User: Which sequence fits this backbone?
């Protein structure tokens, strides 16, 4: 279903790797809603992923950028404005990676070089993206910036490892930069705290398959899918949410406010 909610709006979408990526689904949905955008990802992901297919489907250009490189981001912002013919209305940050998780290091046995790299990619990159946009005065008034996060920022999920700390930092950056972007440029900044979702990044978390089923049984509405997340993001990029800013918005079928569900109780009964 399409409502033309993003007709005439221009943006940048980070993080579409393959058809499972939340950013991939979001790009398709934004396209269906009339928005145009530049796709970006790390140069190495370009080789592994299938982003060309998405670009073709949505009539978009691709500008590679490592989200930890200020130089790459400044270049991306300049090129995006050239390609799209003006300032930007929406930006999606859908980037996450923990080197400790990838290398099988437990939270109590972090290698700090790995920690620093993962934090740079997953959390500081959000500040870097916004600083590049801010300094270039690249955002239109009433524009909207969204990053994706997870509830491990508030509550402990042991296997989420150092990504929990990265997400806490990411959410804080949304509030802090949201103040300045709101005051100076009338731009809103929010994070969406999404249900566990079967993507490349999601499946990197130990015990993911059991955990996604547990979350589904704990959520009165069931887990929010990648497509649900795409739909929600479209509302945040639309003019219908102009005064929502500096928020961490739970998009999880009710998981975050559920103590226990009947299904979970039943699984313990004798
Ligand atoms: P994904 O693996 O499809 O996307 C992660 C993206 O980050 C990839 O496209 C990857 O190439 C990109 N990336 C990694 N390093 C980069 C760098 N240096 N520069 C630029 N891009 C880089 O997985 P997914 O799940 O779609 O992830 C998107 C966001 O959603 C992440 O922030 C993730 O933490 C968040 N999220 C995911 C959940 C899940 O269960 N899958 C739940 C809640 C939040």
Assistant:
């Amino acid at each position: 279903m399409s409502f033309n909610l993003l007709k005439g709006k221009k943006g940048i979408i980070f993080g579409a790797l393959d058809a499972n990526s939340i950013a991939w689904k979001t790009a398709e949905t934004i396209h269906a809603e009339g928005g145009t955008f530049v796709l970006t990802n790390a140069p190495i992901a370009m080789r592994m992923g299938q982003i060309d297919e998405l670009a073709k489907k949505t009539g978009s250009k691709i500008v590679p950028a490592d989200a930890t490189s200020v130089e790459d981001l400044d270049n991306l912002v300049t090129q995006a404005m050239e390609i799209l013919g003006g300032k930007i209305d929406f930006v999606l940050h859908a980037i996450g990676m923990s080197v400790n998780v990838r290398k099988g290091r437990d939270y109590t046995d972090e290698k700090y070089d790995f920690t620093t790299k993962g934090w740079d990619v997953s959390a500081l990159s959000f500040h870097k993206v916004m600083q590049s946009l801010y300094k270039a005065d690249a955002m239109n008034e009433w524009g909207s910036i969204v990053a994706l996060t997870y509830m491990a920022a508030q509550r402990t999920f042991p296997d989420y490892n150092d990504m929990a700390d990265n997400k806490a930092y990411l959410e804080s950056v949304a509030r802090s930069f949201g103040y300045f972007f709101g005051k100076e440029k009338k731009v809103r900044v929010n994070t969406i705290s999404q249900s566990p979702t079967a993507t490349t990044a999601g499946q990197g978390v130990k015990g993911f398959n059991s955990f996604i089923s547990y979350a589904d049984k704990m959520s009165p509405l069931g887990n929010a899918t990648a497509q649900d997340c795409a739909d929600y993001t479209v509302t945040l990029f639309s003019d219908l949410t102009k005064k929502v800013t500096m928020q961490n918005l739970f998009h999880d079928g009710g998981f975050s406010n559920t103590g226990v569900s009947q299904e979970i109780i039943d699984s313990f009964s004798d």
Residues 14-15, 17, 21-23, 41-42, 45, 66-68, 94-97, 121, 148-150, 194, 196-197, 199-202 surround NAI (CB under 6 Å).
